[in-house]
């Protein structure tokens, strides 16, 4: 049975290779699985029996009885020798294979700190060394991903690592909601404090703000001094980008309100078309969005200093809200924005349970 199965496997190996290639990472069901130990025992036993039978047939008298005895003795000796050889040989084969299987299983669970011992200079030793080289490459990729996540928005890092930088190379026009956030009174604050304290305050603030933006599907486009620009709808498109941006703004304001004595911020929202893509040159590129929509968001945020509101949104954002009931929306008088020839309608947003102050 074992010999027949092995011979069939050898003849069908090209077909099995094609099936495995077509199946990819899908497991292939196997009716008969022959361990390496059994394979070696069958082959060694067959060789020993054949050799012993031939020797028994050549040496000595050729009576039927003597031939039967010789063959019987040869088979007994062959079985003993085969057993010893299998015990000696299979350890040198199966133990490295088990090490590889165990390491592959740990890697499949995400443990990249594993390592395969190289116990010989044979083919299995070369295979183990190649496996370790592969693990080193996976560790390096994981390190790069972690570094990308530190210096790039994780959404951009994942897009680059999965699709390549070409996915961002071509600019495209998309509709987004831009969120601009700025710290109130930052100039006066920073003038009377050491640089280390200023940086610590900003890092603490952004440590709160950035996860909230990511939670609602936004992408931090850039940090601008004591503020930041976040985009909802790029690089990952979201039909409800305006709702996501407003929900993030409300959560940021609510979270900061629970920290008495902490920094106060103004948030401006504006929606519309932008050009999104890799911008830069000489080997240095950043994914960003450009266009009047972004500029107006910054102007809307500046207007929070005039109205006293924590959150202001433009009429373009209000019109795109699918769930405006999440907030109390209060119209503010139209005001001129720098860079705009006409006055712009603005709206204050606060949590639905709150009542924002009426403007005069």
Plain-language structure description:
This protein is an alpha+beta fold and 360 residues long. The protein folds into 2 domains: 1-149, no CATH class; 172-351, Alpha-Beta Plaits, CATH 3.30.70. It has helices spanning 2-23, 36-58, 64-108, 123-151, 154-163, 166-169, 186-191, 195-215, 241-257, 292-307, 315-320, and strands at residues 172-183, 219-224, 227-232, 265-281, 284-290, 311-314, 327-336, 343-351. Strands 1, 2, 3, 4, 5, 6, 7 and 8 form an 8-stranded mixed beta sheet that branches. Helix 2 runs antiparallel to helix 3, helix 4 (123-151) packs antiparallel against helix 5 and helix 8 (195-215) packs across helix 9 (241-257). It is rod-shaped, with a radius of gyration of 36 Å. The chain crosses the membrane at residues 40-59, 65-89.
């Amino acid at each position: 049975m074992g010999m027949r199965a092995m011979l069939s496997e050898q003849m069908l190996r090209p077909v099995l290779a094609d099936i495995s290639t077509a199946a990819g990472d899908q497991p292939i069901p196997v009716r008969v699985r022959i361990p390496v130990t059994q394979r070696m025992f069958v082959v060694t036993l067959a060789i020993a029996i054949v050799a012993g039978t031939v020797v028994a047939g050549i040496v000595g008298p050729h009576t039927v009885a003597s031939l039967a005895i010789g063959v019987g003795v040869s088979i007994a000796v062959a079985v003993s020798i085969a057993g010893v050889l299998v015990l000696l040989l299979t350890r040198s084969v199966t133990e490295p294979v088990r090490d590889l299987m165990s390491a592959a299983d740990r890697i499949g669970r995400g443990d990249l700190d594993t390592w395969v011992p190289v116990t010989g200079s044979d083919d299995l030793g070369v295979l183990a060394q190649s496996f370790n080289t592969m693990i080193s490459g996976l560790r390096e990729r994981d390190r790069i991903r972690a570094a990308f996540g530190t210096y790039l928005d994780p959404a951009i890092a994942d897009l680059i690592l999965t699709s390549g930088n070409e996915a961002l190379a071509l600019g495209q026009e998309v509709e987004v909601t831009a969120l601009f956030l700025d710290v109130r009174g930052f100039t006066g604050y920073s003038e009377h404090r050491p640089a280390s304290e200023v940086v610590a305050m900003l890092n603490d603030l952004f440590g709160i703000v950035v996860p909230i933006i990511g939670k609602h599907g936004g992408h931090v486009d850039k940090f601008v001094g004591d503020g930041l620009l976040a985009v909802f709808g790029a690089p990952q498109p979201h039909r409800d980008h305006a709702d996501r941006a407003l929900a993030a703004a409300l959560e940021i304001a609510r979270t900061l309100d629970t920290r008495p004595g902490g920094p106060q911020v103004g948030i401006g929202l504006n929606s519309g078309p932008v050009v999104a893509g890799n911008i830069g040159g000489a080997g240095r590129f950043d994914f960003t969005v450009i266009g009047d929509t972004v500029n107006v968001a910054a102007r809307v945020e500046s207007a929070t200093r005039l109205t006293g509101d924590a959150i202001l949104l433009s009429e373009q954002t209000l019109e795109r809200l699918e769930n405006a009931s999440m907030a109390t929306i209060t119209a503010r008088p139209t005001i001129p924005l720098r860079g705009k020839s006409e006055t712009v309608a603005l709206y204050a947003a606060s949590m639905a349970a709150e009542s924002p102050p009426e403007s005069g």
